[in-house]
Specification:
The chain is an alpha/beta fold. The protein has 17 helices and 14 strands. The longest helix is centred in the middle third of the chain and has 17 residues. Belongs to the serine/threonine dehydratase family.
Length: 407
């Protein structure tokens, strides 16, 4: 069983006019940051927020009538769930989505919003998958696999057709890897159309499942990652064989790089991406020498990030860049002192966001107090200026959080 360019072209014909043909846009700001000619394929603009609806549409539009009457079932805690639910609604097919019991409420509601029956079962994805298989057998439902299916792979491969049609000069395609369906489809199409093009996969460092499978290593995947969309412990058998044939390299990215990539996409490109969607950018940040001077196409494969998580990422980015810091000053516990501190910070160009007054703890002398302030600043140098000014004014001050004053 394999997937060919002809299969992907047929999938593209099925998808024509049915889903969004997402743009391939030049990443003007990031190009300057990274020193390359970068173009972003914005699958975060799909109606369900990710590329998953492509493969789901191809798979489900080819089902026999009896299967469409009975309905489909999928197991997912995220993008596959929403992709299948959305396509099922568009095709008029009943859909059941099994999700782990701890799935964030927002993801559950987004899936239900497309009209799917959502069943919360199991503490882990593997437990949910077992239940979904059993339910499929009991109710004669068609199981829609997230990646280990030739129709799914062919649907995802249509991305490469669009990218190379929009920019035939691309030298490298950078693609996130979870179960492998996306990169398998893209690699099949791209290598057939342009044999010299380089295909680079990207995995979260805590989930190197495809790399380990290719190299016969013992699986070690596990743990928390911002890129939960590619946090897959065992890749698909079909994608594995295609990756073995057509993918040139797989790079690992740490959590700090993924977080930074999400931040930069928002700040510089004004693009909202989830952790998995930003994994390709994380690889460019972590391995700049690998891509410098080349024409790179990166797939922003999804934008379904929790708003609270996005807020945390952006605030942490401000702290990392020295634009949001927390300082602690030792002051006398007397009237007017707080006003003097605030005046010094304000005169230095800092903006106080929050302030905390500590009097009651035993390690603070009774006639003194500790003042913690969260301050907006311009740069790390600006932080140093504020800290120095407070110290010179007789208020011993040190940095508690954010970029160090020495940076």
């Amino acid at each position: 069983m394999t997937v060919t360019l002809h299969d992907i072209e047929q999938a593209a014909a099925l998808l024509a006019g049915k889903l969004v043909r997402t743009p391939l846009v030049p990443a003007v700001g990031l190009n300057e940051e990274l020193g390359l000619d970068l173009h972003l394929k914005l699958e975060n603009l799909q109606r369900a927020g990710s590329f998953k609806s492509r493969g789901a549409f191809v798979k489900m539009s080819r089902l026999p009538k009896e299967a469409t009457r009975n309905g489909v079932i999928a197991m997912s805690a995220g993008n596959h769930a929403q992709g299948v639910a959305y396509v099922a609604r568009e095709l008029g097919i009943p859909a059941t989505i099994v999700m782990p019991e701890n799935t964030p409420f927002m993801k559950v509601e987004r899936t239900r919003r497309y009209g799917a029956r959502v069943v919360l079962k199991g503490e882990t994805l593997s437990e949910s998958a077992t239940f979904a298989r059993d339910l499929a057998d009991a109710e004669k439902l068609t199981f829609v696999h997230p990646y280990d299916d030739p129709d799914i792979v062919a649907g995802q491969g249509t991305l490469a057709l669009e990218m190379l049609a929009d920019n035939p000069g691309l030298d490298v395609l950078v693609v996130p890897i979870g179960g492998g369906g996306l990169i398998a489809g893209i690699a099949t199409a791209a290598k057939a159309l342009k044999p010299g093009i380089e295909i680079i996969g990207v995995e979260a460092a805590q989930y190197p499942s495809m790399y380990q499978a290719l190299h016969g290593e013992t699986p070690t995947s596990g743990g928390q990652t911002l890129a939960e969309g590619i946090a897959v412990k065992i890749p698909g058998a079909l994608p594995l064989e295609i990756v073995r044939q057509h993918v040139d390299d797989i790079l690992m990215v740490e959590e700090s790089a993924i977080e930074r990539a999400v931040q930069l996409l928002v700040e510089i490109q004004k693009i909202v991406a989830e952790g998995a969607g930003a994994a390709g950018i994380a690889a460019l940040l972590a391995h700049p020498e690998r891509f410098r001077g080349r024409r790179v196409g990166a797939v922003i494969c999804g934008g379904n990030i929790d708003t609270r998580m996005l807020s945390s990422v952006l605030l942490r980015g401000l702290a990392r860049d020295g634009k949001l810091v927390r300082i602690r000053s030792e002051i006398s516990d007397s009237p007017g002192t707080l006003a003097k501190i605030a005046g010094l910070i304000g005169d230095s160009g800092g903006n106080i966001v929050e302030i905390y007054h500590q009097r009651l703890f035993y390690n603070v002398p009774v006639k003194l107090a500790e003042l913690d302030a969260v301050i907006e600043t311009r740069t790390s140098d600006h932080v140093r200026e504020i800290v120095e000014r407070l110290n010179k004014a007789g208020f011993p001050t040190r940095l508690l959080g954010g970029a160090t004053p020495e940076e």
